[in-house]
Design goal:
Length: about 325
């Protein structure tokens, strides 16, 4: 298959490595200096899913869609930060004659990304992927997988035919990145929202691994409030997840989910340390904005969003 990966960050490189290893043609779009680093060094993957090296001649990489030939892709995998969603949707729409009419799969954090893409594309083309794998990038061409909690889940939020993603899931799995197609990706995304909205910003604010947040009654209290606010908002907005109540999720979170990723450090912390914009608007900020539509109060999520915005304001 011929696959376009828009975004050569940690997730994008992990996908690219798997798809190339499975024998697919892969094109990556990113910016300098990442493009030059990939052309010079290829892709290196280390960590819990194994060590691999992909040579530069095994894939192509460009700094814009201008570089690609007039060829259609079987899939487009969007691996960009959530705050870039609308801008990249516009770019892809401008090159619609080059990229063809293939499925667009959003490998992004948070809630609200698909809504940005359906402004420019038919709902039937837009799919979401939930990724429960932790990455760091020791170098521009090097992705290190620090934790892998579950297979990638891919599906449609809009009732689209998710079976069209099965070949992509098969190739990712063949290349060493387990992936599955699901009819309930909305539930998967909200489950990840619960996890990320508690751990990602607090891990960044306090500069501690996730496991430390579960050792203090103070941070546990904050996280529990976040969970309760999200459940109320999610249910009022007509969504659901795999857990029927906040308390059911809390029980599973402390007994199973948190212990399995206790040593992991927040990607938001990595963004702050690199003086990059965070994805708080697609996490706790998205909960706050959705809650406002239903006149729901979310004071803890509002405070968390404000704290991260304050930290960002010191360098942006």
């Amino acid at each position: 298959m011929n696959i376009l990966i828009y975004g050569g960050g940690a997730v994008g490189l992990g996908l690219a490595r798997s798809l190339v290893s499975a024998g697919n043609e892969v094109t990556i779009i990113d910016v300098e200096p990442t493009v030059s680093a990939l052309k010079r060094n290829g892709i290196v993957q280390t960590g819990v899913l194994g060590s691999f090296t992909i040579k530069p001649e095994q894939f192509t990489v460009y700094d814009s869609l201008d570089g690609i030939s007039d060829t259609y892709f079987d899939y487009i995998c969007v691996c960009i930060k959530s705050y870039m969603s609308e801008a990249i949707a516009k770019v892809l729409q401008q090159y619609k004659d080059k990229i063809g009419n293939c499925p667009i799969v959003l490998f992004q954090n948070g809630w609200g990304n698909a809504e940005q893409f359906i402004k420019y594309f038919d709902k039937g083309r837009i799919y979401n992927a939930r990724v429960m794998t932790g990455y760091i990038k020791p170098a521009l061409h090097h992705v290190d997988i620090t934790v892998h909690a579950d297979a990638i889940h891919m599906g449609s939020l809009f009732g689209g035919d998710s079976t069209t993603l099965q070949p992509l899931a098969d190739e990712l799995t063949k290349g060493g990145m387990p992936a599955e197609v699901t009819q309930h990706v909305d539930k998967d995304i909200w489950a990840k929202m619960l996890y990320n909205c508690a751990l990602n910003p607090l891990g960044a604010i306090f500069n501690v691994p996730y496991g430390e947040l579960g050792k203090s009654e103070y941070t546990k209290g904050i996280m529990n409030d976040i969970f309760h606010e999200i459940f109320e908002t999610m249910h009022r907005a007509g969504y659901s997840t795999h857990y029927h109540s906040a308390q059911e999720y809390i029980d599973v979170f402390y007994s199973k989910l948190l212990p399995s990723t206790g040593e992991h450090r927040s990607s938001m912390l990595q963004d702050i340390q690199a003086k990059r914009r965070t994805e708080i608007d697609a996490l706790n900020g998205a909960v706050v904005e959705l809650a406002k539509q239903y006149n729901i109060k979310t004071p803890v999520n509002e405070v968390i969003t404000g704290l991260i915005k304050f930290i960002e304001g010191g360098y942006l």
